[in-house]
Structures are given as C-alpha cells and as structure tokens.
Amino acid sequence: MRVYQKVRNYIDSHGLKQYVIARNSGIPNNTFNAIMNGKRTMYADDLRMICLALNVSPELFIDWKCPETESDEKEGANNE
Question: Right CATH number for 3-79 from 3.30.428.10, 1.20.950.20, 1.10.340.30, 1.10.260.40?
Fold first, then answer.
C-alpha cells in the first residue's frame, strides 16, 4: 500500500474531513485531493505538513523495510 493510501485510510477511519486536514496542513485543497487520489506525488514536505495537521508521526505511514531485505530474510530462513 502506498503512503498516500495509508494517509487516506487513516483520515477516513478516524472520521476526519480531507478539506479540514488540507486547510490545517497549509496544502491547497485541490492539491491535497490530487495527492489523496494518487494523481500527484506526495513529497516528503507534503507528508510532514499532513502529519503535523494530524498530530501523528510520519513513521505511522512509512514502511521502512526494503523489499530486497525482506526477500533476503526469507531466503535465509529457507536455507537454515
């Protein structure tokens, strides 16, 4: 799942309104909507501003594990 999808799910599951988060983050509403619909790239600054508006850590939405690392770990587990 992409970061914007995780953010959108968080907003929806907490009963928040996207236009309120857009306003509180300082991101123009049309830009915010484009990000939440996957039509515009979410940049690090966008995520930072959205997280400040939501009062959450960006780590809530970021999976720090690399796909290559995951497959390497699975292969190592199979070899043991």
Answer: 1.10.260.40
